[in-house]
């Protein structure tokens, strides 16, 4: 089906500046992307234009320069830090006589390498097929021919039409399977909602340290590395927060500037954890000089998936890379924590993060004094111990057990529903 040049390990990188101020950081980020994909850059070619060229994206002279660089360096692939049209990809491939991949293709390749779970692999395959479907037209010249030869001539569909039909069928199959996964996730979310269990969702720019923070808080062993898109598959763990009780923490895929729309659509089931969260923990690399732009890029994606109105706590990570910086909590005019400065690597500031979570999630606290009759005391005391809610207890002269309890109001109301007689013992 594919009449394309094979990809390889050595690459020529191409970046075009469209403004007078040359944004070197964008190019450096693309180099990190390429390295994360396991490809070795052998040469970087830059240029400046007011607008993309219709045939090659770059000018004809620059396209010739790229082709010469490919031959001189022995590169196997040309990687563009821009979105190319199918026709531009094909024209460049003819000229350079090697594979040409745009930014979206590079990100898709990284996602394909990192997907571990069945759901993650399905999501990546869906994004790849959607990307591929736009490259059938004018992508492969032989696909326009009708099947010919003895016994095959006639009004049958062209090869291009056949491939389109096969792609549509495959995409439909994957959507059905992802729909099943989404329904299963929805059941889990509904169960947590009925149990009044708050959900925290870690969001942030790729390589901001979300998985390292997740591992630090949950003592989990989620894969974390100093590379872009180390995490693709969502991981959920339960943690205990003072005055709140059990909380579910979700680690999610990182965002990036110019994240392809196909990927946002494909990872809808994963991002649903973000949309349904009680509180978003927006993890930010405080040592990155562009962290404000990264925040803006993440907020754009959150708006795209309708998660921008969920309450957010900013977690300024990697303070160990800043000089003479101590952990702290920044508060708003209502004295509510809005920003916590921590280091997931060293553990500095993690107690402050827990304190901020308590303040943001606990709401009202129920202080209740009870006198439990002897026949009920053992069972009810065990319920309070499970909630870690007993502050003091004693035995009265008449044999009743006295308790002073402290717990989130949500837990108290839930316990009263489960134990209707409890209110009779409140002092």
Automatic annotation (TrEMBL):
Ligand binding (GTP): 204-211, 229-233, 251-254, 317-320, 343-345
Name the SUPFAM superfamilies on file.
Answer: EF-G C-terminal domain-like (SSF54980), P-loop containing nucleoside triphosphate hydrolases (SSF52540)
Keywords, sorted A to Z = Cytoplasm, GTP-binding, Magnesium, Metal-binding, Nucleotide-binding
Per UniProt, residues of the Hflx-type G domain are 198-365
Q: Does the keyword Magnesium apply?
A: yes
One GO cellular component, as annotated: cytoplasm
Q: Which cofactor does it need?
A: Mg(2+)
Task: List the InterPro entries.
Answer: EFG_III/V (IPR035647), G_HFLX_dom (IPR030394), GTP-bd (IPR006073), GTP-bd_M (IPR032305), GTPase_HflX (IPR016496), GTPase_HflX_N (IPR025121), GTPase_HflX_N_sf (IPR042108), P-loop_NTPase (IPR027417)
> Which locations, inside or outside the cell, does it occupy?
Cytoplasm
- Transmembrane keyword on record: no
- NCBIfam families in alphabetical order: GTP_HflX, PRK11058.1
- Biological function: GTPase that associates with the 50S ribosomal subunit and may have a role during protein synthesis or ribosome biogenesis.
Q: What is this protein called?
A: GTPase HflX
Tell me the organism: Proteus mirabilis (strain HI4320)
The gene name on file is: hflX
């Amino acid at each position: 089906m594919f009449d394309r040049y094979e990809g390889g390990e050595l690459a020529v990188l191409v970046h075009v500046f469209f403004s007078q101020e040359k944004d070197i950081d964008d190019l450096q980020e693309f180099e990190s992307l390429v390295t994360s994909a396991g490809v070795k850059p052998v040469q970087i070619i830059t240029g400046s234009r007011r607008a993309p060229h219709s045939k090659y994206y770059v000018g004809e002279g620059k396209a010739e320069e790229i082709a010469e660089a490919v031959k001189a360096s022995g590169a196997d692939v040309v990687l563009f830090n821009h979105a190319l049209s199918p026709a531009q990809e094909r024209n460049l491939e003819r000229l350079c006589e090697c594979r040409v991949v745009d930014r979206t293709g590079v990100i898709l390749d990284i996602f394909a390498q990192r997907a571990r779970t069945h759901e993650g692999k399905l999501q990546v395959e869906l994004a790849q097929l959607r990307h591929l479907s736009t490259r059938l037209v004018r992508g492969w010249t032989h696909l326009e021919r009708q099947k010919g030869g003895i016994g095959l001539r006639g009004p049958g569909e062209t090869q291009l039409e056949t491939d389109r039909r096969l792609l549509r069928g495959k995409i439909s199959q994957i959507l059905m399977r992802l729909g099943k996964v989404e329904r299963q996730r929805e059941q889990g979310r509904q169960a947590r909602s009925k149990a009044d269990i708050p959900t925290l969702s870690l969001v942030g720019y790729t390589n901001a340290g979300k998985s390292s923070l997740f591992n630090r808080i949950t003592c989990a062993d989620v894969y974390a590395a100093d590379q872009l898109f180390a995490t693709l598959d969502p991981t959920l763990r339960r943690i205990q927060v003072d005055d709140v009780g059990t909380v579910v923490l979700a680690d999610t895929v990182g965002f990036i500037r110019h994240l392809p729309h196909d990927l946002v659509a494909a990872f809808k089931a994963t991002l649903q954890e973000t949309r349904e969260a009680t509180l978003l923990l927006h993890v930010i690399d405080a040592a990155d000089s562009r962290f404000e732009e990264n925040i803006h890029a993440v907020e754009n994606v959150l708006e795209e998936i309708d998660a921008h109105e969920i309450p957010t706590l900013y977690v300024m990570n990697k303070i160990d890379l800043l000089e003479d910086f101590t952990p702290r909590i920044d508060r708003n005019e209502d004295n509510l924590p809005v920003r916590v400065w921590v280091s997931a690597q060293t553990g500095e500031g993690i107690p402050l993060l827990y304190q901020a979570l308590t303040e943001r999630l606990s709401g009202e606290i129920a202080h209740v004094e009870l006198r439990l009759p002897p026949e009920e005391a053992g069972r009810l005391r065990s319920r309070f111990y499970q909630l870690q809610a007993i502050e003091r207890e004693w035995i009265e002269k008449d044999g009743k057990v006295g308790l002073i309890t402290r717990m989130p109001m949500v837990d108290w109301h839930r316990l009263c529903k489960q134990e209707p007689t409890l209110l009779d013992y409140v002092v």
